[in-house]
Amino acid sequence: MLEIQNLQVCYGRVTAVRDVSIALREGEIVTLVGANGAGKSTLLKTVHGIVPAVHGNLIFEGADVAKLSTAERVQLGIALVPEGRHVFANLSVEANLELGFTRPGGSSFKERQAEVFDFFPRLLERRTQKAGTLSGGEQQMLAIGRALMSRPRLLMMDEPTLGLAPVIIKLIKERLQALKSKGYAILLAEQNVHMALSVADRGYVISNGEVVGSGSSSELLQSQDVQRAYLGAA
Fold first, then answer.
1. How far is the C-alpha of 211 from the C-alpha of 205, rounded, in Å?
2. Which domains does the chain have, with CATH numbers?
3. Can you tell me the mean pLDDT for 85-109?
């Protein structure tokens, strides 16, 4: 579904992503493992069109999308749940969801919204409440729900459990597994490496903007290098 080939991304003279190649198949969860500043968020933003690539190919379902705008990529089925959630604080839950409603595909806003409320019942309880008054966990549900309103083929999530309580992290993990069972392809950048690898099929280790390792989640969980660097193992 997604193939990134020899991607390079720069901020001015600083190279943030260097010669990165990764692939993601339909119905698969792939996680990006790496420390803060490794280039994970930049990679997701580049796939979404927020940050331009200096070099490389971004192939989505057989077509190179590197020159398309973010809006055009959303219409093709690429969605991003950004780090920090970035909900519209002064708008209601329902209005936030409406802003995510694109790619109708024969379904109405009400139908799509009902699907999100079924997925996150808490949002139904809060539908008229301003997003800025929600808890952190509820805002994360809203950010995911807003992305799902476009019925994406590829859902990218940037640090979806950052700063959340363990009970909400467990819920997010369960929702990720449910999305996979529905056929979503998910590209996940997550500081909680153990959680990410426990839910993902495969992972890529990113360091200083480069892929320095890859493998199945079980292989990475058993890797002494990954354990020392990210899981606190001796």
1. 6
2. 2-77+152-230 (3.40.50.300), 88-150 (no CATH)
3. 90
